[in-house]
Amino acid sequence: MVYKGESERKAFKSWYKTLVKEGLRILQDDNIEAFFTETTNTCVLFRDTNQEQEPFSLAFVEAARVHQGKQQYFYSDNSNTAQAFMMDFLKVDKEKLPLILSFNSIKNVNYVIEGAASSWTVDTIGKFVEDVNAGLIKPNIRSQPIPEEDSGFVKTIVGKNFKKIVRESGNDVMVMFYKSEEAEETMKVQPAFEEIATTYSDIKGLSFGMMDASFNDAEGIYTENTP
Questions:
Q1: Of 57, 91, 135, 153, which sits 20 to 30 A from 1 (CA to CA)?
Q2: Of the residues 77, 98, 133, which one is the last residue of a structural domain?
Q3: pLDDT at 56 over 60
Q4: pTM
Q5: Apex CA 123: angle with CA 125 and CA 28, to 5°?
């Protein structure tokens, strides 16, 4: 396909985005940034290397053609490091292959298709894509149980109550994100954070919380670097 539009960068970039949205691409190290730079949802099939001719793989290829432009479409397998990187980043189980999910980089959430791979058809994949776009599917958010007792100045925030405590409380909320496997780094910061929470506990409309990013997701927030 030859570009015949205006010689402005903005016009070319718009044409290119439309073009790549209409195709199915293999996820590789050199195009992984597309997951984070596009404003549309990205639908991806993760699979094993020897599954390219399985019915679900062929259905995904056809669904990407039939429903082109509704999302970006990628497929991937274990033949390159990009799949392992993205599955780690999205915090999905690498043992549960094949897997179809849709990722929204703005909200930092992903949505996982339901059912076994044997049930994935052009129609079911297309409905999944349309339902994600319409906001009819709940995001795949990891969460520990909500604490039954949590009366301290620093609240324990988990995936299930993050929206309620942080987004919907009406308060200004200072959150410390940490990872349980980085205990030494966390212990350097936690005492100071708790001291600040105690010092300013009498300020109306201000609250404090901590979230373990090893087991919980916060919609719209990247928690790769902690604490």
A1: 57
A2: 133
A3: yes
A4: 0.72
A5: 30
